[in-house]
Each structure stands twice: as structure tokens, then as C-alpha cells.
Amino acid sequence: MNVNRKVQTLDEFTIQQLRDFPQATGELSHLLRNIGLAAKRVNTEVNKAGLVDILGDFGTVNVQGEEVKKLDIYANDQFTGVLKHGIACAGIASEELDDFVAFDDAKSAKSKYVCLFDPLDGSSNIDVNVSIGTIFGVYRRKTEVGTVVTQEDFLQPGNQQVAAGYIVYGSSTMLVYATRRGVNGFTLDPSIGEWTLSHPDIKCPETGKIYSVNHGNFFQYEKAIQDYIQICQKKDKTNGGPYTQRYIGSMVSDVHRNLIKGGIFMYPGTIDKPKGKLRLLYECNPFAFIVTVAGGKATNGKENILDIQPTELHQRSPMFIGSTQMMEELETYL
Ligand code: P6P
User: Fold this and answer.
1) Quick check: 193 pLDDT over 60?
2) How many whole angstroms separate alpha carbon 72 and alpha carbon 133?
3) Which residues pair with 140 in a beta bridge?
4) What homologous superfamily does CATH list for 10-199?
5) Dihedral-angle region of residue 253 (phi above 0 means left; psi in -120 to 50 means alpha; beta otherwise)
6) In this model, does residue 2 exceed pLDDT 70?
7) Domain 210-331 carries which CATH code?
8) Angle at which helices 223-234 and 324-331 pack, to 10 degrees?
9) d(CA 286, CA 252)
10) CA 25 to CA 228: how far, in whole Å?
11) Distances (CA, A) of 6 to 115, 145, 194, 261
12) Cα of 14 from ligand 1 centre, angstroms
């Protein structure tokens, strides 16, 4: 019987992965479905953020008698909560929290994964209705299963990720995640409340014509970066251009667009902030994993982002990420 399977939901997709890889325990699939659930709840709140004034401002009590929280705290609580009450995560580290959180109940301690996330990146853009996002990375814990996780479980290089992804709360809401087997994008179908496979096997175009950087910092960048930016501006039909500059100021949106269309995103170090602004664990590593699996590249200007051994939970890193040929041209300037 030919069952009409026009679109696969996230649940069906992750279960199909299990059927294709019988040796898998199903823990990672369970963790990814948990993230999908939390993201649906966050999406609901993000979509009505502009209405908060009507429903009661942050810090007040809303019509349901619940305290209205800042959206990034709300998002942090949602992702932490579903992972803590699931059966696949032994602890989390969040861009919103100073320290990691060990899930010390017996069931969670038996889990083999930890999750690191930025629950709501770019939240300052909410007030002006610009897309924002959630970014996450999943690692196999280094400490023994059954024990309470420690900091070393969270200070792993990005090349140790088993999965990474992001949710972009934009004109439509998408969940994109990568495992070593590939990158797949799911669009939230509000009519059924399910993530549906809309972008199977995403590949980063080898080159592109979009460069993303905050020009406001131009005179704070090192000369090599200034030279490369000016080359981008001088591109024309004779040398692979013309390029266009696109910078939304929300990393999830900028990197997602470049992943689909081809392009390069740069957040260099500046005179004031030599390490740049972006967090290695919560922003750089997940995107570096996703874009690399999709065929692109990501460096800090000197080495592959994924090879950096973290020393602190909140350390920052300069970030250059995107289409391989554009990254290779940039590297001739660095
Ligand atoms: P700037 C948002 O605050 C964020 O962390 C990223 O999402 C974004 O790419 C970057 O900062 C924008 O920073 O300094 O250009 O405003």
C-alpha cells in the first residue's frame, strides 16, 4: 500500500534514522525531539513578544497568573526543563547561566550526552521584530555514565560534537540540525504543530556573493580584515562579483541565510575586544559543526574553530564562517 508520506515530521525522521542505524540506542533522537518540543513553546512566546505589553509586561503576572519572564530567561528555562525531565541528557551549560547545571537525579546521571546552548540569541532584536534564534550543541560526556557530570564534560573542542543545530524564529520558524550524517532543516507547520522536513540534506554552496560583517567596527579591525572587506566591495562581474553586504545583527539569521545561499559571515576581534563578541561554546562551535558538515569552513582567523580546546565556559572567539572558496580567499589575507 502506498502510504502518502508527503512530508516527514521530526519525530518520523529521527525514528527513521533509528531504523537505518539499529545499533543506535535512541537517546540522541530522544534528545533532539526534546529540543524540538522546547522550541515550539519558545516559538509561541516569541511570536507574541510584541503583545507582552497587552498581556502584562515582563516581571508582572499574566492572565494565567504566571509571572511574565524576560524571553531569554523563559527560553533558558524551557530548554533546561525538557532536557532535565528527559532521559537523554546528564547536564547542560547555557549562555544565560554563569555555571553548568548537572542533572543529578539517578536517571539523568545515566545519560551519555550533555547539551550546551544559547537559548535566545539576539534577544535585543525582539523589540524591533527582527528574527532571533536558539543555538545548541550536543556532546558525549567524558566522565563515567552514572556519575554526576563535571566541568570537563562541557569544555570539549567543537569537533567532539555528536550533533548541533539552531532554531530561527523568523518569517517561518525553522529547526536545522546536523549530525555527522548530514544537515537537515525542518519548518514548523502551525496547522499540525509539527516540525516538517522542508530542507533535506542541506549543502553550503562552495562560493557565494554575500558578505556579512558589522561595518561600524571597520576601523577597529586589523588591516588584513579591512583589506579583505575592501576587496569584497570592489568585486564586479570580472572577478566573481558583484558581492552584496547583508548583516541582520542576529547571528542565527545571518549564518542561516549564508548556509542556504552561500556567503561569508565575519565577527572579527577588534582593538577593544581582541577575542570578538561571540561565545565559543554556545555560538561558534555549533555553527562551525553545522557549516562544516554542510561543506563549508569556520575559523577564528588562525585555526579551525572546531579544534580549539576551550578553557572557560564563556570564552569568546573571533569567528569567520561560510562558503569554502570565500573562506580560502579570506585566508590569503589573514
Ligand atoms: P553587533 C546578537 O547580540 C549577537 O550575539 C549575534 O547574534 C550577532 O551576530 C551579533 O551579536 C551582533 O553584534 O556587535 O554587530 O551588534
Assistant:
1) yes
2) 10
3) 113
4) Fructose-1,6-Bisphosphatase, subunit A, domain 1 (3.30.540.10)
5) alpha
6) no
7) 3.40.190.80
8) 130
9) 11
10) 47
11) 32, 40, 14, 25
12) 32
Q: What Cα–Cα distance (Å) separates residue 34 from each residue in 221, 310, 320? A: 40, 26, 30
How many residues comprise the chain?
334
What burial class does residue 176 get, using C-beta atoms within 10 Å of its C-beta: 0-12 exposed, 13-18 middle, 19+ buried? buried
C-alpha cell at 71: 524571553
Q: Which of 144, 122, 117, 170 is nearest to 313 (CA)?
A: 117
Cα–ligand 1 centroid distance for 288 (angstroms): 16
Residue nearest to atom 9 of ligand 1 (CA): 251
Instruction: Tell me which amino acid residue 164 is.
Output: A
Which residue has the least CA distance to atom 3 on ligand 1? 122
Separation in Å, CA 154 to CA 15, 72, 73, 285: 27, 21, 21, 12
Average pLDDT over residues 276-297: 98
| pLDDT tens digits along 95-132 | 999 999 999 899 999 999 999 999 999 877 877 888 99
Instruction: List the chain domain ranges.
Output: 10-199, 210-331
134 pocket-lining for ligand 1 (C-beta < 6 Å): no
φ/ψ of residue 246, rounded to 5: -130, 120
pLDDT score for 52: 61
